[in-house]
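Sample entry (276 residues):
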Amino acid sequence: MKRLFLAAIAVAAPAWAQLDPPAWTRPIPPVRLIGAIDYVGTEGLAAYLIRTRDGAILIDATMAENVPAIERNIRALGVKLRDVKLILVSHAHFDHAAGLTAMRRDTGAQVVAGAGDAEALETGIPPGETTYGVIRFPAVPVARRVRDGDRVTLGGTTLRAVATPGHTPGCTTWTMKIARGGRPLDVVFPCSVTVAGNRLFGNTRYPGIAQDYRASIARLAALPADVVLPAHPEMADVLERAKTGRLVAPGLLRQIVLKARDDFDREFLRQGRVAK
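Predicted structure, serialized as tokens:
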């Protein structure tokens, strides 16, 4: 099934969103990013750990087989698994959500997700219709369903949920502010706006998908962002930028999103011709 999914991505997604499948499960050591934010994911799928005075927040758990590697990275940073209090979800697709059940079990953390994806997470059935079929994942209870503008706070650290539906109905971009050298910075964990096999026409499970994509693309393009940390790290060269000290990159999010808009427009026209 994974091969079918990746084949669909290769057809439907832009070149910068295409992935080398082995990278999704290839473990790497944790990477210090910026402020209290660390990278604890695999080479090709991001999981971000945010340390606070009252515990830690994890953004995404990626695939089920990656959970042991993510947990090793968390412990390597001196954080106990039981100190992870919240797991924030970007969206309900198997490559970002299949590890949630195991991570929740091992940490005792509460799962927080966009309201539009809560049912998918609690049933293990991804939302919408795709060209590659249905790839299920372990169901997980959602402790809190967030909507646009909701805030999640732990130990004096606050993240804001920005609803950016399209890729999934509850696709949630998370934002937070940090200070660096006395300068405030906007950090954005953008949810994907790639088509990646989503049906843009005749999607009976998600009839408003195309309109949501367009609205979210416009919203993300205008979002203040000094640091961009996406769910697929290569989309913003996160690991390379961290290594070379170039994580602060105003304008990068807009550049990424405008490229995604062009790719969306091409795919919309292609699917429209096929649908006629």
